[in-house]
Amino acid sequence: MALAPHAVHRLYEYRKSISTKPFGARGKKLIRCPLCLLGAQFCTCSLRRQLTTQASFLLIMYNDEVIKPTNSGRLIADLIPDTYAFLWSRTEPAAEMLALLSNEHYQPFLVFPAQYANPGQTVLSQVPMATLANGKRPLLIMLDGSWREAIKMFRKSAYLQDLPILSFDPNTLATYALRKGSHDFQLGTAEVASLALAAMGEEANGKALTAWFDLFVESSLLGRNRRCREDILPISEFTDAFEAAYRAATLEL
Ligand SMILES: [Zn+2]
């Protein structure tokens, strides 16, 4: 049975409806699945599964990020049932988003590099699950855009200035990059979110999200014909890896 559309699917439809011109993404001749935005023949929607988690996510998305097929924030909403998504506005932040930030059932954490913290702003490397007041859920806030855009969103949003920051030390980032064999530490939004899940003690959920991200990247490259032949691993390697990671996350409960 197909899962219901999630917050990023709904925000995508909304953002498209207010757009005055069609979005000129690379590879626009490609016929895309309207949900995962991958080329129709590489659609991963039937593989999507929801994780069982204590985490809630709030995605604050820069301008047209939500309609970019390369956006990885949507992968968080794919797997994490309690995910919210809003467009960022410097002057008119969504009232619903502000209400969420002051909702007593949530403890917000801004997932962002410590180097940008204001003087006196709390910086953490782990989510202090044991000390969260009476059953509050962590609400992990992701600023979804390029780095430049994320920094702008942070600096120009008064409501983010006093929140505790969840930040990863260089060792954590290096270990993650090494394990994945990547050559730089520029992580996608979904990869940072998988580190945030690990920082809550949900390593297996983090690994499932990483595997979902890897499948997405590979499927995007195939859709854009950007893989040279000798480079190609069968896509089943990636779908199997995701399904194994998902099973492991389910077993760990
Ligand atoms: Zn799809």
TrEMBL record:
InterPro entries reported for this sequence: DTW (IPR005636), DTWD2/TAPT (IPR039262)
Keywords: S-adenosyl-L-methionine, Transferase, tRNA processing
Sample GO molecular function, one term: tRNA-uridine aminocarboxypropyltransferase activity
Boundaries of every DTW domain copy: 29-225
SMART domains to which the protein is assigned, alphabetical: DTW
Keyword presence, Transmembrane helix: no
GO biological processes: tRNA processing
Superkingdom, taxonomy of origin: Bacteria
EC number: 2.5.1.25
Official protein name in the record: tRNA-uridine aminocarboxypropyltransferase
Organism: Shewanella xiamenensis
